[in-house]
Amino acid sequence: MKVLGVSALSHDAAVAVIDDDRILYAAHAERFSRRKNDAFLNSSLLEEALAFGKPDLIAWYERPLLKKTRHLMAGQYREAFSLGDLPRRHLRKFGLGNIPVEYVSHHESHAAAGFFTSPFEDATVIIADAIGEWSTFSIGEYRNNRIRWLSDSIYPHSLGLLYSAFTQRIGLKPNEEEYILMGMAAYGQPIYKPDIYQDFFRDVNFDEGLQLATNVHAGLGNWKENARREDIAASIQAVNDEVMLKAAAWAAERSQSNNLILMGGVALNCVSNEKIARLWEKTTGLRDKIWIMPNPGDAGSSLGAAAAIQGKKLRWEGPYLGTDVAPDNSPEKLSDYLASGKVAGLCQGRAEYGPRALGNRSILADPRGSETKEKVNQFKRRDQFRPFAPVILEEYANDYFDMPVASSPYMQFTAPCRFPDDFPAICHVDGSSRVQTVNRSQNPYLHELLQTFHQTTGCPMLLNTSMNLKGEPLVNNREDGERFSKKTGVQLF
Ligand SMILES: [Fe+2]
Known about the structure:
By secondary structure, the protein is of the alpha/beta class. The protein folds into three domains: 2-108 and 299-310, Nucleotidyltransferase, domain 5, CATH 3.30.420.40; 119-292, Nucleotidyltransferase, domain 5, CATH 3.30.420.40; 320-492, DHBP synthase. It is 34% helix and 21% strand. It contains 17 helices and 22 strands. The protein has helices at 30-33, 43-50, 64-73, 77-81, 87-92, 106-115, 159-169, 178-185, 193-200, 229-254, 270-284, 301-310, 331-339, 372-380, 397-400, 444-457, 478-488; strands spanning 2-7, 14-19, 22-28, 57-60, 101-103, 123-128, 135-143, 146-154, 201-203, 211-212, 260-263, 290-291, 320-325, 344-347, 349-352, 361-365, 389-393, 414-416, 432-434, 436-438, 461-466, 491-492. The strands form six sheets. Strands 20-17-21-16-14-22 form a six-stranded mixed β-sheet, sandwiched between helices. It has a five-stranded mixed β-sheet with strand order 3-2-1-4-5, with helices on both faces. It starts with a strand and ends with a strand. The model has no long low-confidence stretch (mean pLDDT 95). Fe (ii) ion binds at residues 106, 110, 129, 132, 264-265, 298.
């Protein structure tokens, strides 16, 4: 059976095509419309998806009527009574009105996206996000392809919503710029952590579900008006770490499975993820029993909803599932260019499904030396305080970083760098890096590039950042790449 999974009408719309146990295609609407986090589907995206054949069924990533009951409770009356956001109406615009639609609940979609792509036969699953239908923080156990729920927290009691409210409090865009708050946290002290527990939590308890003291959906007002925003960021990050660690410890006691899966938008927090990976290893005595699908937020639920309908393990080959671009240059040629100290754009292979550029839509540079960050920032214009990420040959990762996991092919964990002074461009102020590891089967082109660069320079890693202009989505096709190159002067490979 061919299923088209859809996540749309909220933020960052996406689709996935799954035929039996094969993932044929998965991509984000924003890459086609060129509007970051675009909530709506578009015909260019669907044209590519439908090139894989007409689906027998559409799987929608949440239950619209259940969501409307939550809208009602939240006082969002316009959303509660609007018919414009009903899935069928949106699907009809693209000629998909005559295909049967099945609805999968929001957290079941997250759970299925995690489990059915994972290497595990059984797993403990933790799902934490901001807001969907009612569930905001769920813990469950997968066995025989079925989930048994162990804990559920419901709106407005939401860790993700609280983190987003703090994102807004420090002047950033909620539901989008949480990663900037996470980066800023390293510059502050968590001095307000006790105040956050005092003012916003009634109980951190997974038997009954999380209990916040107040509904933070409308923001925090001017909480701690005169505080440094770095200290506020450090404080909420510390709370996020602690609540997630508590959830993992609670789950470890109740689930029979030693395999852990994290999903939901909170699973994009690679600082907390590092701490959870280390705790899980300590608790179980087992390393590398953690899996986060590289698109753990709501866009990834396009794949999750379709996976839940298929109800079986999928053949996961990696996140390179979108638009295909033929390579224009050899890895050797690109390696020579990078070894000469220049910054290059690489647009080849299938586009990444998920928020991170993992080598197919990336800007690359030699990570060594004090001038690299400045050089790359000429094009990226990202906040000066944020570091870039390294991509490294898997077998060298532990020589350069104190890795919490043996391999991290999707840049999901921070790890202390062993030589921060040698690689200032890819190290944060606290000496950590968000590491991507690569082996041949994960990305043959990138692997060969790193091997050649290593042979030429003695350095087994490169700086890797997303190929996009500030405020724009990742480039998708060759034309986008050429436009980027023309605007920035970065040579395209
Ligand atoms: Fe979600």
